[in-house]
Automatic annotation (TrEMBL):
<keyword id="KW-0325">Glycoprotein</keyword>
<keyword id="KW-0732">Signal</keyword>
<protein>
    <recommendedName>
        <fullName>Palmitoyl-protein thioesterase 1</fullName>
        <ecNumber>3.1.2.22</ecNumber>
    </recommendedName>
</protein>
<dbReference type="InterPro" id="IPR002472">
    <property type="entry name" value="Palm_thioest"/>
</dbReference>
<feature type="signal peptide">
    <location>
        <begin position="1"/>
        <end position="16"/>
    </location>
</feature>
<dbReference type="InterPro" id="IPR029058">
    <property type="entry name" value="AB_hydrolase_fold"/>
</dbReference>
<keyword id="KW-1015">Disulfide bond</keyword>
<keyword id="KW-0378">Hydrolase</keyword>
<dbReference type="Pfam" id="PF02089">
    <property type="entry name" value="Palm_thioest"/>
</dbReference>
Length: 328
């Protein structure tokens, strides 16, 4: 039931969410701020670009449902050409890309009072990076579709036909996913969490390990502590994490809900609530859950099949607009 939730979440009718202060309001003159839809930032998925046909169509749909809303599609790295942007989904530093966008979002005047954020797939990890390590201006509600929040245990398959960036990255990954080189240069290596090689992962990985405040190991294999999760997510108003029930692209598909593969039984998937991440509340998910602000939702279909008008992704948006209770 995304209903009330996304109602609060996305954007908000004036009733559902705190009024945002529009730019036009002259605060020093004491002009009363007028409620308007909260701005929205969207971070695209792997291989996609900020202004692909699909991304622009999604943003247009949001504008149709919320006249006057400010929507920003993240360009990462900023000012990149579409081909460089697509390539950056495979190659480069995940935290470097995150830092780039921290700067980008910090300079957009329309976002100054905070914004809601949607991350598609891999983009959901990056927008989390923003929320946990920058968050100025703050993310109010965080919505992710099919994001591998607790990493992937297998590489994401290349598109058909495969792009050169993907083919070469997959080849390089096979040569050693936890090498220092791969961890600096291959995006998927930076969220590859192999249940059969957890010690290597904890030693070599930084990006997804720290995003979940999992803590690393020192050279003697001793835990280094969990201080690296940044702000965590407890300051976000709502986290809405949407999984796809036939997702075979992300392994395990329920990583979208912070599930992982059981290291002692690779056919078993351990749900969030049975993880220490939750029990010890490493990044604030448990606290959010206790307040009814953690929403683990499911869309039917394969990875990122959010569908067209009237289908799952659109219902998420529409249920807000109509103020209606829609279960997805
Ligand atoms: C805001 O109001 C102040 C005080 O009335 C005025 O001096 C200033 O020029 C106004 N700023 C804008 C951008 O209108
Ligand atoms: C491993 O997990 C699967 C799926 O949950 C379960 O059916 C099976 O019994 C488990 N195997 C062992 C040895 O625990």
């Amino acid at each position: 039931m995304l209903s009330a939730l996304i109602g609060a979440v996305l954007l908000g009718t004036a009733a559902a969410a705190p009024a945002q202060i529009p730019l036009a309001a002259n605060l020093s003159a004491g002009v009363a701020p007028t409620a308007r839809p909260r701005p929205l930032v969207i971070w695209h998925g792997l291989g996609d670009t900020a202004h692909s046909e699909g991304m622009d169509a999604f943003a247009d749909r949001v504008r149709e449902l919320y006249p006057g809303i400010y929507v920003h599609n993240v360009v990462a790295p900023r000012d990149a050409s579409a081909s460089d942007e697509s390539r950056a989904g495979w190659w480069g530093s995940a935290s470097g890309l995150g830092d780039d966008v921290c700067e980008q979002l910090g300079e957009i005047p329309e976002l100054v009072g905070g914004f809601d954020a949607i991350g598609f797939s891999q983009g959901g990890l990056f927008i989390r990076y923003y929320a946990q390590y920058c968050n100025d201006p703050p993310v109010r509600n965080l919505i992710t579709f099919g994001s591998p929040h607790f990493g992937i245990a297998a590489l994401i398959p290349c598109p058909d036909p495969p792009t050169l960036a993907c083919t070469l990255a997959a080849r390089a990954a096979k040569a050693g996913i936890y090498t220092a080189w791969a961890q600096r240069n291959l995006i998927q290596a930076q969220y590859f969490r192999d249940p059969a090689r957890l010690d290597e992962f904890l030693l070599a990985n930084e990006f997804i390990r720290d995003l979940n405040a999992e803590g690393g190991l020192d050279d003697d294999g001793e835990p280094t502590g969990r201080e690296h999760g940044g702000l965590g997510l407890s300051g976000v108003e709502n986290v809405v994490a949407i999984a796809f029930d036939e997702d075979e692209t992300v392994v395990p598909g329920l990583s979208a809900h912070w599930a992982t593969i059981d290291p002692d039984n690779t056919t078993a998937v351990v749900p969030l609530k049975e993880q220490q991440l939750y029990a010890q509340d490493w990044i604030g998910l448990r606290a959010l859950d206790k307040k009814g602000r953690l929403h683990l939702e499911t869309c039917p279909g394969r990875h990122m099949e959010i569908g067209g008008e009237g289908e799952c992704g659109d219902k998420v948006l529409q249920s807000v607009a109509a103020g209606a209770a829609v279960a997805i």
